[in-house]
Fold this protein.
Amino acid sequence: MAWRGNYVWRKDLMDVGREERKSVRNCDLKLGVMGLTGAENNVYLNGKKVLKGLKMDNSNFYIFTGGPGSGKSTVLNILSDLGYLTVREVGRDIIQKQLKIGGDALPWNNTARYARLMLLHSVFDFEEFAHINKPCFFDRGIPDTLGYCRLIHLSYPENLNEAVKEYRYNKKVFIFPPWEEIYTKDSERKQDLREARDTYRVMKEVYEEYGYRPIIVPCLPAKERAEWIISNIAIKSTASRQAIAGE
């Protein structure tokens, strides 16, 4: 079950205190850089070994993917309000942090470093919730980093392919199509609608290539989308349905 020949975060990282793990993320997850280069080194944090990974497969993890501005985050927030576990998009977090500290790991600047941080944060999030045995919704997953690299024709380490293969989510992937009526740009989303459509196409191709089954989320009001997603993972929670409907 070990990840052959490559070092990434070990499940033992779950035993490291939350503050220590938070500090790892706050320094751009420098521990994980060696995992991308294949360097065969042991890394310790407060005396604990935090590297060498295990193959991970969690069918309770559901990915939201697609182009930017398609309503993913809005639906994720609704599910969070209903009590479901959710994980925010790593790309936005990276952009916000880089802008705050004057960093260059941005999709309109140092794309290679931005992609590397996307992968590191996505693997970290998977490991963070690895023990979860109930539905957890992710705003993008590890395969999205690969899709991003393909979209902008950016070369990426072979380890990225390995990460996509070894860290497995539920085969049902909820893909949000481009929706012109709700699409807007902001300080962190600079793509136009054409780029959003290209992103949707590439993400669909990547997920299908790696054995996932993209399910297109219909263009409905956000609460109805949330209800539709819940019904598609066979959750028959009357309380959740009533909460969505505002009853």
